[in-house]
Amino acid sequence: CSHVGSMPKSAVKDHPLTFVPLYLHPEGLHNLKDYRYSCVDKSLLANYVMQPFWRFAIELVPMWMAPNVVTLLGFFFVVLSFCVSVYYNPSMTEAMPAWVYLLNAVCLFLYQTLDALDGKQARRTQSSSALGELFDHGCDAMTSVFSTLTVYATLRFGLGWFPLLHLLIAMATFYVAQWEVYFTGTLHLWYINVTEAQFMGMTVHMMPLLFGIDWWVSPVNIFGYEIAHNYFLLPGSTAAVVILLLLSLQNIYNKYQQKPKKFEKAPAFLYPAVWILVLGFVWAYVTKDIWLADHSASLALHISFGFIFANAISKLCTARVCKVDYDVYQFIFILPIIGIALALVPGLESATSLMLYISAVVSVVSYGAFSVALIHDMTNFLEIHAFKLHPLKKPE
Fold this sequence. Notes:
two-stranded antiparallel sheet, globular
């Protein structure tokens, strides 16, 4: 596995027999105790509308509840919403029962609320730690995949080229935001950020309840052309995501002009996002006859690339928190490479199709295994519990 920079080479060390990082380097572990979280949130909606509600809501959370449990509860609501939506609308083109749209909106609101409360609970119970931030961002990375796919189910847009582009750009923006934090030390959230995006998602889910189940696919006449409502949303949201991506890049460039030496490695740390985007579109193109004709294969492709991105994001977050260099070449990238190779060999259509599902499973399992290993190592080193507030006792 190749690295950028000198020792310490990475926050995580690969197990020799698998693609799954299983333990942290000692130098990365020792840096955990010096870590301090820094964030600047300029969202008017978050600061002036939601903060008063969140300050009220945190008083309803029991003092015995660990912050990571609050985070995990929010994540479970998103997974519940996704699973119910896929059950009723596996092709992402069908109408769902009215209660499912309400469930999706409520689950997204609960996730947003709990995601805002976990940090407050950590400060309230004096249990803030580097593990808490990594666990929060790790759940956020998975949530980005599941909540986006749930919105597609509500929009009934299907899982074609444009939703794939939207998902990849959204995950790339998440990656670039973490890349920005790695070099600047501060998470910058602009005036329109994730809070507004979440409320937009809630609005998307509520529209079929307010204006009819088929509202998103019903046409509107624009200059003589019949265009469905859902065609207006994805291009607009994609444009917003691209703008946020450009703002992060501009912020890094401004910081680079002030301290060029500090940002020498910054371009190289973008390689994983570039690899995923390039491999994603190449793999999607060479297998288009399979996944465009089979909604389950299409869902597998979207989950696969969502979680390949999530793997890269979480490892970047880990490297940042542990204050070490970041592995830019990761074994998880071999999945699309194998998929592309199979698609280019005549007569391997069944294997090519199967690889889409294998990639989805491996990318999810790899993410889960990395998360479990990370929690194990960090809790042991910091002598804390992941999901309980009581500290671990040293053996006598």
